[in-house]
Amino acid sequence: xxxxxxxxxxxxxxxxxxxxxxxxxxxxxxxxxxxxxxxxxxxxxxxxxxxxxxxxxxxxxxxxxxxxxxxxxxxxxxxxxxxxxxxxxxxxxxxxxxxxxxxxxxxxxxxxxxxxxxxxxxxxxxxxxxxxxxxxxxxxxxxxxxxxxxxxxxxxxxxxxxxxxxxxxxxxxxxxxxxxxxxxxxxxxxxxxxxxxxxxxxxxxxxxxxxxxxxxxxxxxxxxxxxxxxxxxxxxxxxxxxxxxxxxxxxxxxxxxxxxxxxxxxxxxxxxxxxxxxxxxxxxxxxxxxxxxxxxxxxxxxxxxxxxxxxxxxxxxxxxxxxxxxxxxxxxxxxxxxxxxxxxxxxxxxxxxxxxxxxxxxxxxxxxxxxxxxxxxxxxxxxxxxxxxxxxxxxxxxxxxxxxxxxxxxxxxxxxxxxxxxxxxxxxxxxxxxxxxxxxxxxxxxxxxxxxxxxxxxxxxxxxxxxxxxxxxxxxxxxxxxxxxxxxxxxxxxxxxxxxxxxxx
Length: 505
Fold this sequence. Notes:
Layout: H1 3-25, E1 58-59, H2 73-76, H3 81-87, H4 99-111, H5 117-128, H6 130-134, H7 156-160, E2 162-165, E3 174-176, H8 186-191, H9 193-199, H10 212-216, E4 221-223, E5 233-236, H11 238-243, H12 246-249, H13 254-258, H14 263-271, H15 300-304, H16 315-336, E6 337-342, E7 352-361, E8 377-385, E9 391-395, E10 411-412, E11 414-417, E12 423-424, E13 434-437, E14 447-455, E15 464-473, H17 477-484, E16 493-502
Parallel strand pairs: 1-3
Antiparallel strand pairs: 2-3, 4-5, 6-7, 7-14, 8-9, 8-10, 8-15, 11-12, 11-13, 15-16
């Protein structure tokens, strides 16, 4: 046996022995949580004695998490590097530091800075920065120290210490057993890996880890009265959309699709009537193609994500993984919907041509679109050309220079208005008074048919080519122009397209 191998074996035995000794001599800690007043002074409680209100997240003992000891995902990466490498390019990894979110909450906080604006951010941060909220870091005065885990967004420890969920309550309605800090001692992990797996909520030990209820706690958004208004306002219902769908009846959970190593292929297999193998990935593939666009110029994706990831992951490797994440996202979007075009066999110059376009939500386990629908939206583009390629009808155009979308387009968008009936386009949710939809979202496995009609020019030469595209866009242009104040056009992506040729009589 070579000397390096002997040294490795010796080191491992030493760690194991140390872990066993520590487990015998160290008393079991009931809680490492911090107590308001004693451990955390000057903490603002404007409504009640719940330190996390108006957010719904909490700890199993009701105490604040210890900012000195809660481990970061980078710590977990020492043993779980593959999972960390997947997670670090996900949107979960930047749910707090991404510039779009940070700018939006600053705008919300400023709008209400004379009415407990900072404390109201606990409602947002319960999902976007859950550990910062649990540590007591969302406070007008800085009362806790810096912590690597607090800056990571929705990190490993958030999901892997969850023991209960109230998904219809929303806004991070998770209970985290996060304060038994002995579970994070490296020596104890080495000494008792099975116990560590049990404590860290592997799906084998806690079924919640594989259930949509875990995801629903944050993918439900209900604004409470403490923020504004005379009654709670439902702003996101993704979990409830799934709960009412065939997918819930079929026991297909959020994790089955969004934690698949290839979500688009998983959905395609379901649509073929197959029962695909479940291969777990921590990429959490969703639809935020902008925060994974590593090919954007001038390091824009680094800016939007709030900087490079922490740790030693090579930059080239990280960018390549971002591009793979973007590929998975775009594939998922393209698997979500189908288009059908029903048109007459012939058209007559000088007369009306009527046709129907049907959008089917064929691959999403929730409505299309879903999530923050005041920003994430779909629209239809219809373009008709004659045999010479001359355009004779066009609805749903997109201006690549300005980011403007045809105001006459059939659009699936939620419109937010304040008390003065002024449109809110920058996701300032604190000020929303009422909501309208340009067109209702399409539930899972349902369809929406849109009729079109126009007059064919008398001098048209056939056949006519009718092209239909379903576009998806992550955010309104106003978000970049007026909130982020960056000179960037937010690009849309094509979800589905089809075309047909119609001869002229």
